[in-house]
Design a protein that fits this description.
Layout (H helix, E strand, L loop, with lengths): L10 H4 L1 E6 L3 H7 L5 E5 L7 H8 L5 E6 L10 E3 L10 H15 L7 E5 H13 L8 E5 L21 E5 L8 E6 L15 E4 L3 E5 L8 E8 L2 E9 L2 E6 L5 E8 L10 E4 L14 E2 L6 E3 L13 E8 L4 E7 L3 E3 L7 E9 L11 E6 L1
Parallel strand pairs: 1-2, 2-3, 3-4, 4-5, 5-6, 6-7
Antiparallel strand pairs: 1-8, 7-8, 9-10, 10-13, 11-12, 11-14, 14-15, 16-17, 17-20, 18-19, 18-21, 21-22
Length: about 375
C-alpha cells in the first residue's frame, strides 16, 4: 500500500469506503446516499463533471474527476487507462504533469490516481516504473468484476501488485451502476505543506544537496535515484546533505519530504553530474643520477586546459611497498638522503593546486643506492 505520502497510518486511512460512478448523474442520484464518494468524467463522450459538481458540491461527498483524453490541463485527479481512452504510454507524462500542478496549487491532484483493468495493472506499473514514476507517486484504481467487494492484490491472479481501490461490480443496489471499494487514504486531500526550493551542486564524484525549510519540520526524508533505481534513501536533520557519492556523467533525480509525513514530497529534481576531470600525463621519463646521491630528474609535464602543474609529488617506496619518503617539489628534480645499500621504487606525478584535475598517473623507476 502506498501510505508514505500520508505520514502516520491511522484507522481512518485503512477503513474501506464505497465509491460510485456512472455516466448518468440521475442514476447516481437515486443510489448515492450510502456512498462516501462519487466519480465523474471531465471530458470524452460521456463528460458529466459539471452536472456532478452541481449536484454534489455541497453534499459532503468526495468528488473524483476522471480524464479519458490524457489532458493534464483538464485538471482531473484520475486518468482512465483502457481501450479507447488513455494508454499505458500516456500515463507517465500525465502523472508527472498532474502531480506537479497539484503540488503548485496544493490541490487534490498532488496524489494522482490511475484507473485500469486488473489484467493491465502489471504492464501499466512497469511502464510507469521504466519512465521513472515510482509506485508511491500515484494511486492505482483497478477494475475487476467479481461480484464481491474487494481490493485487488496478488491473490487476484493478475500479478504481484496491491491496488488502492477496485471497481468490483457494474450492478450495484439493483441498478446498472459501477461500484468500487477503496481504502480511506485513496481520498487524501491536498497537502498542508510541500518541500520546495531544491538545489544541487555536483562535482564528478560527489553532489551537495539543499532545500527550503518547512515551518515546524526539523528532519527530512531524502531520496536519490538513478533512473528508476533508488541509490540513496536516508533521514536528514536540517536542510542540507553534502558530499553524497555520485558517478561522473550520470543522470540522477531526487526529492525530499518531511519525516513522518510532516511535509509532503517535493517534485522530483533532475540533474546530470559532470564528466570526470582530465588529469596531467605522467612525466615522460624518470631518471636517476649517481647511485650514491639518490637524485632523480624528469621532464616538465605539459599544461591541460590551460592549467600548468603547481609542483610535483615525489614518493619513495621501500622493498616492501611501504612509503618511506613523500614530498612535494616545485621543480623537475630532487635529491634524497637515503641509507647506503637501500633500494625501492621512486614515483613522481604532477600536482594541481586548483583541484580541477583528477589524480594523475605517475612515472616510476626501481633503484638501489
Amino acid at each position: 500500500m502506498r501510505l508514505r505520502l500520508r505520514g502516520v497510518v491511522t484507522l481512518a486511512d485503512m477503513s474501506l469506503k464505497v465509491m460510485l460512478d456512472d455516466t448518468n448523474v440521475s442514476t447516481l442520484e437515486s443510489h448515492a446516499s450510502g456512498a462516501y464518494a462519487v466519480a465523474g468524467y471531465v471530458n470524452g463522450s460521456f463528460a458529466n463533471w459539471a452536472a456532478l459538481v452541481g449536484k454534489y458540491a455541497s453534499s459532503g461527498k468526495f468528488l473524483l474527476s476522471i480524464d479519458v483524453k490524457n489532458a493534464p490541463s483538464a485538471g482531473a485527479q484520475c486518468l482512465d487507462v483502457e481501450k479507447g481512452d488513455a494508454t499505458n504510454a500516456d500515463a507517465p507524462g500525465w502523472v508527472k504533469a498532474t502531480r506537479a500542478a497539484g503540488m503548485a496549487a496544493k490541490d487534490l491532484r498532488w496524489f494522482p490516481k490511475i484507473y485500469t483493468s486488473a489484467s493491465n495493472a502489471t504492464a501499466l506499473i512497469g511502464t510507469l516504473t521504466a519512465a521513472g514514476v515510482a509506485r508511491d507517486e500515484y494511486m492505482l484504481w483497478t477494475a475487476h468484476y467479481t461480484g464481491k467487494a474487494h481490493i485487488c492484490n496478488k491473490s487476484c491472479g493478475f500479478g504481484d501488485f496491491q491496488a488502492d481501490a477496485t471497481q468490483w461490480t457494474d450492478s450495484y443496489d439493483g441498478a446498472s451502476l459501477d461500484c468500487s471499494q477503496a481504502y480511506g487514504y485513496f481520498f487524501s486531500g491536498a497537502p498542508d505543506a510541500v518541500v520546495s526550493g531544491l538545489s544541487d551542486t555536483s562535482a564528478a564524484t560527489f553532489t551537495d544537496f539543499g532545500w527550503g525549510a518547512v515551518a515546524g519540520v526539523t528532519n527530512y526524508d531524502f531520496q536519490l535515484c538513478e533512473g528508476a533505481t533508488q541509490v540513496v534513501r536516508k533521514d536528514v536533520a536540517g536542510t542540507h546533505l553534502e558530499r553524497v557519492t555520485t558517478k561522473p556523467s550520470t543522470a540522477y533525480r531526487w526529492r525530499v519530504a518531511g519525516e513522518g509525513g510532516s511535509a509532503s514530497w517535493s517534485a522530483w529534481k533532475a540533474f546530470t553530474t559532470p564528466a570526470a576531470p582530465k588529469a596531467f600525463a605522467a612525466p615522460a621519463s624518470l631518471s636517476m643520477g649517481s647511485n650514491v646521491s639518490a637524485s632523480f630528474t624528469w621532464p616538465p609535464v605539459a599544461a591541460v586546459d590551460g592549467i600548468s602543474p603547481s609542483g610535483y609529488t615525489v614518493q619513495v617506496l621501500n622493498d616492501e611497498g611501504k612509503t618511506a619518503v613523500e614530498k612535494v617539489v616545485s621543480g623537475t628534480s630532487v635529491s634524497l638522503e637515503l641509507p647506503a645499500d637501500w633500494g625501492g621504487e621512486c614515483r613522481v606525478w604532477a600536482n594541481d593546486s586548483s583541484g580541477k584535475l583528477s589524480a594523475p598517473p605517475h612515472a616510476s623507476i626501481k633503484f638501489r643506492v
